[in-house]
Design brief:
This protein is an alpha/beta fold. It folds into 2 domains: 193 residues, Vaccinia Virus protein VP39 (Rossmann fold); 101 residues. It is built from 12 helices and 7 strands.
Amino acid sequence: MMKNTHWTDYWVKGYVTSLPEDFKSNYDGELLDFWRNAFSKVPKNARVLDICTGNGAVALLAQEYSDEKNNHWKIDAIDLAEINPKEVLYKNHTKVETSLINFIGGCSIEDYSVNENDKYDFITSQYGVEYCDLPKAVFNISKILKDGRKIGIVSHSPESDMLKNMIRENKDYGLINRLGFFEIIKSFAKGNDSVKSFKLKIMRLTNALTTRNVNSPLINDIVTNLYIIGNMPTKQLFLNRKKLKEYSESLNNAQLRMRDMLQVSKKISDKSGFVDIFQRNSLKLIEDGVINYKNKHHAGDYYIFEKQE
């Protein structure tokens, strides 16, 4: 179970999905097709739970489907991060009545409980359950899912293009850490450095990154920002210490989220072991496969498990 503020920090920025570069408003293409096909097998008046919901991307897809088919689903969505996504979803999806979705922040699937009469007909997880304490999470999922009902999962995959990019990006973060990027910003933001000393450090850091000639979007973006910072007038730079701190914290939180994802990819690299945890908890695998987004990018793996009586 990963209870870290770097995920809360991400969701409060207003992203709907965990992959904002590919999905600006919500998941589409093959990911959307997977969920709509899964939803087509869920009965009317069902209780649906989206776990590790973030800002509710999959819960929103479920609500859209329910509205379209007049299914009258009751949808709950939980996340360990302190989420409050209704305003975000309202800005991005004004056609959907998001007030019908019951969002619960600060709530882990490991500890979530419902009454016997409130068990779920369908549970969803997209890039979520693998971040949890998997044995505890799956044990609890089995408890709150009705017999004969299903859980649909889209998980990260060690072979996905996204994770391959993250492995490269992790090396870039290693470089800026070794060069002292975060310490330099933090020291100035705390008032421990004069503007003159700070600018000198920024110039040296910029030169160090530039001379390495690293072909990296992350490094290139940082170098661009360092040029801007280094050329700010003294007064403006002093007045923007808070913004510099926020910029540094935002980058560090992105680094921590990336490390979470890399850690998760190792956890699920043994697919048979991943599946076995579910099957030991009376959740039988009935379907699995690979999702290739736009028939090109390996976006992840999918699984459908059914609760056995």
